[in-house]
Amino acid sequence: MTPMRSFVLIAMACALASTGLAAQDLPDRNPFEGDSAAVLAGMGQFRQRCADCHGTDARGVRGPDITQVWSSGRSDQGLFNTVRRGVSNTEMPAFPAPRTSDRDVWQMLAYLRTLATAAPTEPPPGDAEHGAVLFEAQCAGCHRVNAEGGRLGPDLSRIGASRSRDVLVSRLRTGFDESRPGFQPVTITPESGPAIRGVKKNEDLFSVQIMDTRERIQGFEKDQVRSVVDGTRSLMPVFGPERLSDSDLNDLVRYLGTLRGFDPSVPPRSPVVF
Predict the structure, then answer these.
(1) Is the dihedral angle over the CA atoms 214, 220, 226, 229 positive or is it negative?
(2) Would the pLDDT of 272 be above 70?
């Protein structure tokens, strides 16, 4: 073996060891599972580091519901690596060593195990096909699924994998008290003309960029408008019983539960004709 090859192999081994990603170093199961002291410590770590996105009950706010990850087949080792590496192209950051120790990660996972929900033994109520029709009529104007639909709200192509049925029902019935980054409601009042509503995309000390309700990107210099007012609630409407019956709600949520990821090899669905 050449000196250069030896150096490269040693450097790679050191890099893996320093990030805690060497598979042979990870146990198959969480070494702290069932340890009450570790669970309590993990609860503190989770609430400090993760609850802003996942909620104190781990059922999701901006981030996904993580009470279902074990019932969906994820392993302790796989979840450890997800925490360590983060998830690319999402808000989920990496928690590398030494800033976050192996012990901290395992303890957080031990706590989350106590919140884990079992896989359902019976299918949820509702008709997914009718739910798809309702989605086209009520939701597709703002939300995209598999690269089709509006852009004013978040992409819902994976909503069924990231939110439980109970959370979806609650959010539809009561609305959202907060918005995800990139979707915060904002109202711009120009020096002349009507106010412009939309969602904030970028902002600095001197300017703000929004997508208006017609999905047009507009930029404004702050010293050239009368006001920039951030909304306190999402633009997502409340779907009360007068707008969506319990039966239709079950159908819509059943359809949303089928949305578990965009597969580019699947042709786009045919538009629904009304």
Answers:
(1) positive
(2) no
